[in-house]
Amino acid sequence: MKIVTLTLSPAVDIEYRLERFNPGGLNRTQSHTVSAGGKGINVSRSILRCAEKDNPGFSLKTVAPVGGETGEMLQRILKKEGITLTAVPVKESTRVNVSVIPDEGHSVEINAPGTPVGDALEEIERAVLDGIGPGDCVVIAGSCPKDVPKSYPSELVRKVKQTGAAAVLDCDGEALRIAVNAAVKPDVIKPNNEELAALTGCSPDDPRELARAAEGLGIRTVITTRAGEDPLLTDERGTIFFSQRKRPVVRLKGAGDTFLGAFVYVRYGCGDPSDDIAMEFAVEIAGRYVAGE
Prior knowledge:
The chain is of the alpha/beta class. Helix content is about 35%, strand content about 25%.
């Protein structure tokens, strides 16, 4: 079985930590980290953590467009993590995102727009579709670069499903709206409660409304994550609430990608047809991640 992840808007993420943020003057940091970011890349990272034990019937392919010195940096970072990137060259440099996290006050995030892919979209698509078929899974995650239409994730879902592989989509806004209203729908979507509310007009804080909204989408499997709260699984049976053990919250950024990676690994990488087992595993893995374990 093969899992392919696609990140159309990868990034080099720089995170600065400091005691307090001074918006009008000089800021001296206590420490900083540089990492490879992007939702599909995060999903691959989660899958690899879950697959630490040998799984001879499973393979992972991580696809992303990269360009310039920052693109080379991103590949080096991933290689150190054990993630071999199927990198599709683009003309412009891979974007850089910056986070400033003070001990006192609110964090500041500065995200650049996705790097244009230019004429590389067909090559990206070939890299994703190459060799996939029934029993395999493609995860399309994250935002579209500014030169890629919002309809593209839905178009790629259709092409993935024509091969017999499963299509998992994790995006938001207009791209998600187009995909859920398309004639050929993804097999799995994973909105958080805010994204589902924006899509359907339901309350993001009312789990019953979230359940009804998810059930009305016509998607085989809808996973609705809620930061720090119990996630929801909606499939042909209706909606099931999965309780999670309460842990101290150390980090939330990337928790949804960690959750999705764990779910996809069990559901598709291990050939287990049970959404329930995959959900229970994902709840535990995401809980550990949030707690910093």
